[in-house]
Automatic annotation (TrEMBL):
GO molecular function, one term: metal ion binding
SUPFAM superfamilies per record: Prokaryotic type I DNA topoisomerase (SSF56712)
Catalysed reactions listed for this entry: ATP-independent breakage of single-stranded DNA, followed by passage and rejoining
GO biological process: DNA topological change
Protein name: DNA topoisomerase 1
PANTHER family: DNA TOPOISOMERASE (PTHR42785:SF1), DNA TOPOISOMERASE, TYPE IA, CORE (PTHR42785)
Site (Interaction with DNA): H33, R139, R140, D143, W155, R286, R473
PROSITE patterns named among the record's database cross-references: TOPO_IA_1, TOPO_IA_2, TOPRIM
A Pfam family per the record: Toprim
Length: 770
DNA sequence: CAGTGAGCGAGCTTCCGCTTGACTT
């Protein structure tokens, strides 16, 4: 039996450490937290001074039993969870849940997994820091209280099954507010003038007027003034400059860079990184630290000097600048710097390469560059043309890695031909182009992560889950949206001709950007209006400050929570009692024909428009659902009136109506209970005629017949159908597999009902039960 | 399965942060 039990959070880490420590140690993993607040109710005894009620995660019962047994038999238990607030709490929960004997328990920490670091930690044991544990309890309880009191307010006032929380609600707010800025944005127009020039040797280069010009007339004046004339070099400056490498990756910068360079989604990046970590290729991927261990610095140095030579190496230690960083781990880096490539699938290889390059580059020399600026003048105009050149004198880290930016890539400053002051310069072509100011960019997943990190909201382990939560709740959608065509003016001077042309470009096209939904906007507005304090961007920073004071022993955690909860709970009660249901109602105007009011709002089945008031007794209002490409925020009166024209009744066939409509899944024609989609034919439901509709319906009836084995009318209608994967039972939109022992051809209604009732519950439900 | 949109009530939903597998179409 091993003398020592050492517990860490991650199993991969446990494996590595076990190798360092030899046979006197058995190293196990807690797999993160082992206990959490009880899930029913709030899990906090509010009247009892906010006493938390912890339960062991049902999935962890077996693990806890195993650890308990190992701990009992060991002479010493070493709690080696991460060196941060959560890690300290995990150790404390372990001590409590395993009923560890304090005399036989030691707390140790290391923020890098190297043999010397681990051995050193064993020499410097301490006890559990209860203040830090209390800070974690405060964090946990506050998040629970906020989440479990706010969410039910939404169920009552907006829609069931919605959610709100300290992190997710602020994430949604960022996206909603950005969208509003974009909706309110009015582009302004201006002109930029640039040109191609030739020096006396006939070498070509580009130059531009840096100022934005206000009008076409002004541009025209400039072009006319310099027509047929030469420029001269007014000024020429050469300045040395340097570029420094970016620090090695943290979770957030890895997500951003993988998004830009590899087009990975945030969760995709984390999945691939997890595999690299488990395979031992990289260090831990959930970290907010840019720190590199001594071992890593040496490894990088050796790899760089042997690969590129001594002068390419420069040792650097970076310091973290993100708010609330806890730095329990190293930066993300390769475990072996000499391994430039790995085997594995394409995604793994590419992500590894990115991590390797970034970490290697961070320990390389600055790039030395020479920046040249040339000014060209012509006395007939008040502006100078400016040409910029850049020459790399020593490439340094640029040899392996160039960091990308979110902004549009600036035009590459290339090498300028040599020139002297006073030299006569001819133009080849000078172009004045109309430009438009651009609205602030929509968030991509990675940009949102960056923003959250800057505000100190969320942690490396939660960035990816937060983004999927706000999408799962339907607050936000990640979408591709087509742009619009826009025309612009171009004036071009070539030779002695100034030509004017009108050109078109596509603007505003978006790919993989986050858009708020109607429900996202309504929930956000409701929360901002009623819970400004929680939704405030500074809220997390404020409470983090309090948590720090708990950690330093300055204040008591339950008192801090009490202070927060009193006013918060009062606001919850107040809102429940006094605030109206939030429907996001927007008045669009009046129907010109009837004079009735038209509004857009969220109804029981989603976003809708309504014609006429609800309270009118005789004249019932008309309703219509919005199409998926429409939203309450942007729909116009005209679009709304169009919606009321559907469904269109086209005629009758065998006593049943033939009609055209747009449903949740697109446009369709309908005859009784037969639905035929218009998607494939591209027909417009507003224009499709009776004959076209009947043809589509007959085709559909025929196709349905071919796969129908039996139909049982009545409520509900049950069909037995032939599918691609064999026969199945269809009820509404739900399908059921026919179990063994039943003959599809011979099923009767009762047997079908039996199969439906006995069908196993849906996957999502069984998953939650576990 | 084909027109809905109000409110009631039972019983359900929900938070953030630590960690990995075990599930099928």
């Amino acid at each position: 039996m091993a003398k020592n039990l050492l517990i860490v959070e991650s199993p991969a880490k446990a494996g590595t450490i076990e190798k360092y420590l030899g046979k006197d140690f058995v190293v196990k993993s807690s797999y993160g937290h082992i206990r959490d607040l009880e899930k029913k109710e709030t899990g906090v005894k509010i009247e009892d001074g906010f006493e938390p009620v912890y339960v062991i995660d049902p999935d962890k019962k077996k693990l806890v039993t195993e650890l308990k047994k190992l701990a009992k038999d060991a002479e010493m238990v070493w709690l080696a969870t991460d060196e941060d607030r959560e890690g300290e709490a995990i150790s404390w929960h372990l001590a409590e849940a395993l009923k560890l004997n304090p005399d036989k328990t030691k707390r140790i920490t290391f923020n890098e997994i190297t043999k010397p670091a681990v051995l050193r930690s064993l020499e410097n044991p301490r006890t559990i820091n209860n203040n830090l544990v209390d800070a974690q309890q405060a964090r946990r309880v506050l998040d629970r209280l906020v989440g479990f009191e706010l969410s039910p307010v939404l169920w009552k006032k907006v829609k069931p099954a919605l959610s709100a929380g300290r992190v997710q609600s602020v994430a949604v707010r960022l996206i909603v507010e950005r969208e509003r800025e974009i909706l309110d944005f009015k582009p302004e127009t201006y002109f930029k003038v640039n040109g191609k020039f030739k020096n006396t040797k006939g070498e070509l280069f580009k130059a531009e007027i840096s100022d934005k010009l206000n009008s076409e007339a002004e541009v025209k004046e400039i072009l006319e003034a310099v027509k047929g004339d030469h420029f001269s070099v007014k000024d020429l400056q050469v300045k040395p400059g340097k570029k420094t490498p970016a620090p090695p990756f943290t979770t957030s910068t890895l997500q951003q860079e993988a998004s830009r360079k590899l087009s990975f989604s945030v969760s995709q990046t984390m999945g691939v990184a997890q595999k690299l970590y488990e395979a031992g290729y990289i260090t831990y991927m959930r970290t907010d630290s840019v720190n590199l261990s001594e071992t890593a610095l040496n490894g990088a140095r050796d790899a760089i000097t042997s690969e590129f030579g001594n002068k390419y190496h420069k040792q650097r230690q970076y310091t973290s600048k993100s708010k609330g960083a806890q730095e329990a781990h190293e930066a993300i880096r390769p475990t072996d710097f000499t391994r430039a490539e790995i085997s594995g699938d394409n995604q793994a290889q590419r992500l590894y390469e990115l991590i390797w390059k970034r970490a290697i580059a961070s320990q390389m020399s600055d790039a030395e560059i020479e920046r040249t600026t040339v000014l060209l003048e012509n006395n007939a105009i008040n502006y100078d043309f400016r040409a910029k050149g850049e020459v790399i004198k020593f490439d340094g880290f640029l040899k392996v890695y160039i960091e990308s930016t979110d902004d549009e890539p600036a035009e590459e400053a290339g090498i300028l031909p040599s020139m002297t002051i006073g030299e006569s310069i001819a133009y080849d072509v000078i172009t004045g182009t109309q430009r438009f100011t651009h609205h602030p960019p929509r968030y991509s997943e990675a940009r949102l992560v960056k923003k959250l990190e800057e505000q100190g909201i969320g942690r490396p382990s939660t960035y990816a889950p937060t983004i999927s939560t706000v999408q799962k709740r339907g607050y936000v959608v990640k979408e591709e949206r087509p742009g619009k065509e826009r025309s612009y003016i171009q004036l071009e001077l070539a030779g002695k001709e100034v030509a004017r042309s009108q050109k078109t470009e596509i603007t505003g096209a978006e790919k993989g950007k986050l858009f708020p939904t109607d429900i996202g906007m309504v929930v956000n507005d409701f929360l901002v209006e009623n819970f400004e304090g929680i939704l405030d961007y500074g809220f997390t920073a404020e409470v983090e400050d309090q948590f720090d004071r708990i950690a330093s022993g300055e204040i008591q955690w339950k008192k801090m929570i009490e202070k927060f909860y009193g006013p918060f709970h009062e606001t919850v009660e107040n809102t429940l009692e006094h605030s109206e249901r939030a429907t996001g109602e927007r008045h669009l105007g009046e129907d010109p024909k009837t004079g009735k009011e038209v509004i857009a709002r969220i109804g029981r089945y989603g976003p809708m428009v309504q014609l006429g008031k609800t309270d009118e007794e005789e004249d019932k209002p008309q309703f219509a659902s919005l199409r998926s490409d429409q939203s309450i925020a942007t729909i116009t009166l005209e679009d709304a009136l169009e919606l009321f024209k559907l469904p269109r009744v086209l005629g009758e066939l065998e006593g049943k109506k033939v009609q055209a409509n747009i449903g949740r899944f697109g446009p369709y024609v309908q005859w009784g209970s037969t639905f035929a989609s218009l998607k494939a034919s591209g027909l417009d439901p507003m224009e499709v005629d009776y004959d076209q509709a009947v043809e589509l319906i007959q085709e559909k009836v025929k196709a349905d017949k071919e796969k129908t084995i039996n139909i049982f009318d009545g409520k509900p209608v049950i069909k037995v159908l032939k599918g691609r994967y064999g026969p199945y039972i269809a009820v509404g939109r739900k399908n059921f597999k026919i179990p063994k022992g039943f003959e599809p051809e011979e099923l009767d209604r009762a047997q079908c009902e039996q199969i439906i009732n006995e069908a196993p519950a849906k996957k999502t439900k069984t998953k939650k039960k576990k």
